[in-house]
């Protein structure tokens, strides 16, 4: 199942990051109306297919920063599987196809048949993918120079960055003090230290 760190093809210490994908922040340019981007986020017979040519521009956003170890791509038709893929991270704005062509990528992949085996993983330069909030894939060509490109499944393998999320704090007001609950820990803080204060594990910072 997606997100299952026990999958045999996932190295120990890493996991399928699909549960951390923020679908509302994802984007795909040149997707077919009939075979859209959402199809490649689930493991079934459906697929993402490009529309007017072989190129696709996919942005995947994560709900929290992650570290990327590798990418997993599956395509039922190898001739239509991606070949040259430019990978970008943390772009400040949406990228056009022209931008993708001329911009320097974080990594350029030249995929081969072995990358599409059932247990195949596409390695990424781990040191360059340490604090990733979004990743953009420019699929420049496919394996057989076919008119369109197909992707049955796309996901990333890695780990979440353990960053404190202030949305996880829940405040409960009392008459003289404020209580904070964070991951099951009860924290107390007097009103005098409430200004510009972060409460973590019972301590004021």
Automatic annotation (TrEMBL):
Keywords: Disulfide bond, Redox-active center. It holds the Pfam family PITH. PROSITE patterns: PITH. Residues 6-176 form the PITH domain. SUPFAM superfamilies: Galactose-binding domain-like (SSF49785). GO terms for cellular component: cytoplasm. PANTHER family: THIOREDOXIN-LIKE PROTEIN 1 (PTHR46115). This is Thioredoxin-like 1. It comes from Takifugu rubripes. The lineage of its organism: Eukaryota, Metazoa, Chordata, Craniata, Vertebrata.
């Amino acid at each position: 199942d997606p997100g299952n760190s026990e999958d045999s093809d996932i190295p120990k210490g890493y996991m399928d990051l699909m549960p951390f994908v923020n679908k509302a922040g994802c984007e795909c340019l040149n997707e077919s109306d009939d075979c859209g981007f959402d199809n490649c986020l689930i493991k079934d017979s459906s697929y993402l297919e490009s529309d007017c040519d072989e190129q696709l521009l996919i942005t995947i956003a994560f709900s929290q920063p992650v570290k990327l170890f590798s990418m997993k791509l599956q395509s039922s038709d190898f001739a239509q599987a991606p070949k040259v893929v430019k990978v970008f991270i943390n772009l400040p704005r949406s990228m056009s196809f022209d931008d993708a062509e001329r911009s320097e990528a974080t990594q350029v992949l030249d995929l081969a048949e072995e990358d599409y085996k059932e247990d195949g993983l596409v390695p990424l330069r781990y040191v360059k993918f340490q604090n990733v909030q979004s990743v953009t894939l420019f699929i420049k060509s496919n394996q057989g120079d076919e008119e369109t490109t197909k992707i049955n499944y796309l996901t990333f393998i890695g780990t979440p960055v353990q960053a404190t999320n202030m949305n996880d704090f829940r405040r409960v007001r009392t008459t003289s003090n404020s209580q904070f609950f964070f991951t099951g820990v009860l924290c107390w803080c007097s009103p005098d230290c409430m200004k510009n204060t972060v409460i973590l594990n019972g301590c004021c910072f």
